[in-house]
Amino acid sequence: MDQQERIKDLRAEVIDLVRTKNYDRALEVLFVLRALVPDDLQVSASIQQIKSFLVTRLARQLGGLDSVAPPIPASAARTPEALVVARLVDGIATIDDLCRASPFGQLQTLKILHALYRSALSATRDYHELGEDLPQPTPSTIAMSATPAPDAVAQPAATPAPAPTRAPAEPTASEGSGFDFNATFQRGLSAYIQRRYDEAREALEQCLREQPLNRQVETMLQRVRAESERDK
């Protein structure tokens, strides 16, 4: 399959995913598509539209961005990312404060919080209806439904553009180095959670050397350095 055929198939997949309201998966496919056609404004507009919808819906389900984040339920699943966000919950910070302080970006932080509070949210009456009154992206409203500009489809990306606020979805390695970015990043998170700051800093600095423009790693590294200084 040549690149133009793949781009066409990815566009069609996005339309189908939006039609079935599988917005999270549609967003993942859109990021792949943007890597292939980084100058396509329709793709970028579709990403922003779906992200905005997901952020608004999650925020509503969590009680609003200005609501104070409640204590994390004891039964909540504790992934390394969840533990990082959970450490920010202090009974004073709002949901918006947590999003700003988190190294994972607004949408991903809201998803993590939603997972942490899921059991409590599910017990809330009308929880499943929260956010359902929002205008939902549909195949007829997202920019992807328009006919793509010929130039935008024909020109491949010279270098794939990563999602700006998320670590890569799969391990990335430098050519011939065998460097496992995700494993190293997870090791840094785990060390940070256990307050082994030297180990966390070493792992995150390795990640930053491999991906110097990765804002998630840079933010996490700044937090590690700050907390390490406070604990001295």
Q: What would your notes on this structure say?
A:
There is one protein chain. With 232 residues, the protein is an all-alpha fold. It has helices at residues 3-19, 23-36, 41-61, 80-86, 95-101, 106-116, 118-122, 150-154, 181-193, 197-210, 215-230. The chain has two domains: 3-146, no CATH class; 181-230, no CATH class. The protein is globular and about 55 Å long.
Task: Describe the structure concisely for a colleague.
By secondary structure, the protein is mainly alpha-helical.
- Could you give the count of β-strands? 0
Pattern of helices and strands: HHHHHHHHHHH
Oligomer: single chain
How many discrete domains? 2
Mean pLDDT: 79
Q: What overall geometry do the principal axes of the alpha carbons give? A: globular
- Contiguous helical run count: 11
Helix fraction, binned, reads: 55-70%
Supply the helix-strand structural class. mainly alpha
Cα-based radius of gyration, to the nearest Å = 19 Å
Q: Could you tell me the strand content as a percent range?
A: under 5%
Give a quick account of the main beta sheet: strands, pairing sense, barrel closure. none
Question: What is the rounded distance between the termini?
Answer: 57 Å
Low-confidence stretches: 125-130, 145-176
